[in-house]
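Bumping with the actual sequence this time:
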Amino acid sequence: MPSEPSKDLETFDNPQPERDYTIRINIPEFTCLCPKTGQPDFAELTLEYVPDRRCVELKALKLYIWSFRDQGAFHEAVTNEILADLVKAAQPRYMRLTAEFNVRGGIYTTVAADYRADGWTPPSPIALP
């Protein structure tokens, strides 16, 4: 196999560190295992962040997400684990991870977790006419 799952997250220099801007990444094929039954759980992850000096490298992110495929995890725990790892690697100004899990037993679960760097405040929204 040319690539393998990996817990290593790589970053690269932010090309515009002086500007607040949002990076939005959709990950529609996240899978992990239910820690109670061992059955697969499927989710769509949405990662949104305002980078500071570093940006998340996408191939490394793909391999990192893949590493959860055979891991048992509660929805709440895995969402917060992924956010914590991404914050540690990229040290963003702001980051939000939303995990929308597919139905299991007639129940959908959505978990959203946020991080905000100390001292960072978002710019005021601009209302266009």
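The tokens above came from a reply further down the thread. Residues 5 and 87 are 20 Å apart (CA to CA).
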